[in-house]
Structure formats: structure tokens, C-alpha cells
Amino acid sequence: MRPFPRLHLITDTRPGRDPLAVVAAALAVAGAGLAVQVRVEDEATDRDAYDLATRVRAFCAEAGATCLVNDRLHIALAVGADGGHVGALDLPVEAARRVLGPRAILGATAREPASAKAAVDAGATYLGVGPAYATTTKDGLPPPIGIEGVAAVAGAAGVPVIAIAGVTAERIPDLRAAGAHGVAVIGALSGAPDPVEATRKLWDALR
Ligand SMILES: Cc1ncc(COP(=O)(O)OP(=O)(O)O)c(N)n1
Ligand SMILES: Cc1nc(C(=O)O)sc1CCOP(=O)(O)O
Ligand SMILES: [Mg+2]
After folding, report:
1. Would you list the domain boundaries of the chain?
2. Residue-level pLDDT at 13
3. Pocket (CB within 6 angstroms of ligand 2)
4. Which amino acids does the record list as binding 2-[(2R,5Z)-2-carboxy-4-methylthiazol-5(2H)-ylidene]ethyl phosphate (predicted)?
């Protein structure tokens, strides 16, 4: 079984972004060590999500990388992804586990230890934990939980913790010291002038 990826790239499908170019750049550096989470805007159609996920899944398969789908688990199944990720407004974790089956990777968002434990008991195999820092990429989040918040969840989780929100290469040492297995990023790669170089920095900080 391959080790659980430490670097998770979440696709950025906001206007003006080029998610597939960023995925290709990240795969060129991190290869099989990368997980790509296909995440589309809430307004996107299932067809658009399916088309993107199909292409990401093919890129990942070629590189031996992990492909996950956010929220829309029927699309994860339809494209043969390795798993999915759910949060508080999505399918409950136990229902997501039923949909994906016993062997799939299943991520759940957790912001504090109690919900982290509940998610793991319900079948989550990793936790997305944040917001670690402030972010401009997603609206409506609670205040950042910081290093202390990440450490509290990591200490209670028993599964890999992937820290999310405002993650940069410079912040990775603190997050790892807090117990995070790895990180998930959108802006650090999608907004970078050179996504290959930006991936290299994240990747070096994680090794
Ligand atoms: C790795 C990771 N962590 C957290 C999230 C957020 O999931 P959720 O709370 O369901 O919010 P949306 O991403 O669906 O807007 C994530 N996607 N990935
Ligand atoms: C999709 C998402 N979920 C979050 C959470 O805390 O649940 S933060 C986030 C966006 C993270 O983007 P960036 O790496 O650009 O800060
Ligand atoms: Mg969600």
C-alpha cells in the first residue's frame, strides 16, 4: 500500500484559473507523493465536475498519484477516484463510507477534537483540519484554529491530519511539529507565478 500523501493539491476552478495546468505542474514535482482533490465551485454542474475529475484522474493514474473528489461522491465513483472528502454540509461520514465502500480513502473536515473522533469512528481515514490560518480562497469559515488547534485535533485523531487554509512552505515546519501529517493547498499553487517552483518549495518543506 502506498504511503498516505503529505501534499494535497485542491483544484481551483474560479474564473481565470487553470486547474489542469497546476495539477500537471504539481505532479511533475511530487508524482506519486501527491494527492489531487477535485473541488469545483458549488454552482458548477455535475457534468463540468465529471469532465474535470475524469482528466485529473487520468493525470493521477499516469503518475501513480492519489485522486480524491470533494463533496460529489457519485463523481468519485464514476471516474474511479481513490476516494472522496466530505464536510459538515455534505453527506455524513457514515453515509459517505457506505457510498464509497470499505476500501476507499475518505476524508472528513474536523475543526476540533470531538468531531474529529466522531468522524474517525464513522469511517474517515484522514482528516482535513482547519482553518489553520486565514485564507482568502474560501468565504464563510470560522476564525483560524492556529497551530494549537491543529495540534489538539492531531493529538486526538489517530488518522493522518491534513492541515488546510493559508498554508505556505514557510508554515509547514510548524504544522508538522504540531502533528500534521501533511497539508492541503489551493492558493499556494494556483496563485503562484511558477507552480513547478512553488510545488518544489512545498515538497521540500514536507520531506
Ligand atoms: C483536505 C480538506 N480539508 C477540508 C476541506 C473542506 O471541506 P468542506 O468543509 O466540506 O468544504 P468544501 O471544500 O466542500 O467547500 C477540504 N475540501 N479538503
Ligand atoms: C476549501 C477550504 N476548506 C477550508 C477549511 O478550513 O475547511 S480552507 C479552504 C481553502 C484553502 O485554500 P488556501 O490554500 O488557498 O488557503
Ligand atoms: Mg464539502
Report:
1. 7-206
2. 97
3. 10, 109, 130-131, 135, 137-138, 141, 164-167, 185-188
4. 135-137, 166
Instruction: Give the binding-site residues of ligand 1, using a 6 Å CB cut-off.
Output: 8, 37, 39, 70-71, 85, 87-88, 90, 107, 109, 128, 162, 164, 184
Judged by its nearest atom, the ligand closest to the C-alpha of residue 37 is 1
The predicted-structure confidence for 146-184, as pLDDT tens digits, reads as follows: 999 999 999 999 999 999 999 999 999 999 999 999 999
The class level of CATH for 7-206 reads alpha beta
Asked if the interface predicted TM-score (ipTM) of this complex is over 0.95, the answer is yes
Q: From atom 1 of ligand 2, which residue's Cα is the shortest distance away?
A: 138
Please tell me the pTM assigned to this model.
Answer: 0.98
Per-residue model confidence as pLDDT tens digits over 47-74: 999 999 999 999 999 999 999 999 999 9
Nearest to 105 by CA among 117, 91, 93, 90: 93
Identify the sign of the CA torsion 45, 94, 97, 88.
positive
